[in-house]
Design a protein that fits this description.
The structure is a single chain. The protein is mainly α. It has one domain (7-53). The protein has helices at residues 7-25, 31-50, 54-59. The protein starts with 6 loop residues before the first helix and ends in a 7-residue tail after the last helix. The relative contact order is 0.27.
Length: 66
C-alpha cells in the first residue's frame, strides 16, 4: 500500500471530519444525514491516518510529495 495522500490532502480531510463532528454535536445534522456524513467522516479519518486513499489509487492520483 503506497502512500498517496499528501499533507494538504490530510489536513483538508481532517478539517471535513472536524466540521461534520461539530455539526453533529451541535444538532445541525440528524437522522439519515448524520449517519451518511458520519460514515464519510470515518472514511476520511481512516484515509488521512493511513495516508492511503483507494479511490485516488484507482484514479492514479497521488498528492504525496516525495
Amino acid at each position: 500500500m503506497t502512500k498517496n495522500v499528501g499533507r494538504t490532502d490530510k489536513l483538508i480531510r481532517l478539517a471535513v471530519v472536524a466540521l461534520i463532528a461539530i455539526l453533529y454535536y451541535t444538532g445541525k445534522i440528524t437522522g439519515t444525514t448524520a449517519i451518511v456524513l458520519g460514515i464519510v467522516a470515518i472514511i476520511f479519518a481512516l484515509t488521512a491516518f493511513l495516508s492511503f486513499c483507494p479511490i485516488w489509487a484507482a484514479l492514479g492520483i497521488n498528492t504525496n510529495k516525495k
